[in-house]
Amino acid sequence: MSLFSFLGTLEIGLIFGLVAIGVYLTFRVLDFPDLTVDGSFTMGAAIAAAMIVSGINPYIATVCAVIGGAAAGMVTAWLNLRFNILHLLASILTMTALYTINLRIMGKPNVALIMEPTVLSPFEALGLSNMYLKLIFVAVVVVMIGLAIAYFLNTQYGMGMRATGANPRMAQANGIVIKQKIYAGLALSNGLVALAGALFAQTNGFADSTMGIGTIVVGLAAVIVGESLFGSRSMLVIIFSCIIGSLLYRLAVSVALNADFLGFTTSDLNLITALLVGLALIVPHIRREQKARKAAALGGEA
């Protein structure tokens, strides 16, 4: 693997670290399986690209992208809470609608940003190589957001959100407004995913209507890999385990694609993803079985 490919892999891994944090918030914190992220990732890219091409400041465009993603998450929450539609079905409905909405936003299947200003433009005067500049910028943004999310989840409001996912009845009995926490959680989750989409579009120079396909799988893979390595400790460790899990996942995919003896090509990406996620799920299960057997054997000897 060349240095250029390695740095590009790290950059994409960090960007998808935001997706992993968003997925963690819904799947683990709120216990709300949300597939909206496949659409909100593309929505973030579409809004940012369309606004930048129209001459709007890239930072304003990125903020608007986050707001758009948050709105998509709230639509899913509204369908679930207001009309009692199953969370998976509600998120699928929103995701399906977003495909057309994203096309309308861009006006065409893809938008090029190669010659347009981006959030990186103000830092180009530093004289750094573009591949290093993108990696450093994305790393700083992701670390800052990771710290902010970890802090938020340790606040009273954040702990109320965690209580909502852990035990809704007990949380409600303690005066926590369950619906409010779900709305806020899905808005925050999809806002982060949309931010990832906006950053991806600006660092890679394009936005495409199909770029969000499989985003939920990548996010889940990162969360599972991170949990397998670090377990459930402090909230700060958990959040950064999602980011590290995303980096490791992207590195594993890149190594698999670049290992000639494996015979994989870029068209095999979905197969590699399925294999990696499957392994991430199977290995912890095997470990638990082995621990249970050892405990049973020790109990038998006693």
List the helices and strands and how they pair.
Blueprint: H1 3-29, H2 37-53, H3 58-83, H4 87-106, E1 110-112, H5 130-153, H6 156-166, H7 168-173, H8 178-204, E2 206-208, H9 215-230, H10 235-258, H11 269-301
Antiparallel strand pairs: 1-2
Which tags fit this structure?
302 residues; mainly alpha; single chain; 2 strands; 11 helices; two-stranded antiparallel sheet
Describe this structure in words.
By secondary structure, the protein is mainly α. It has a domain at 3-212. The chain has eleven helices and two strands. The protein has helices spanning 3-29, 37-53, 58-83, 87-106, 130-153, 156-166, 168-173, 178-204, 215-230, 235-258, 269-301, and strands at residues 110-112, 206-208. The chain has a two-stranded antiparallel sheet.
Main beta-sheet strand count, sense and barrel state: 2 strands, antiparallel
Distance between the termini: 53 Å
Structural class: mainly alpha
Give a count of the beta strands, DSSP E runs of length 2 or more.
2
Oligomer: single chain
**pLDDT < 50 stretches:** none
Give a short synopsis of this structure.
Helices cover 76% and strands 2% of the residues.
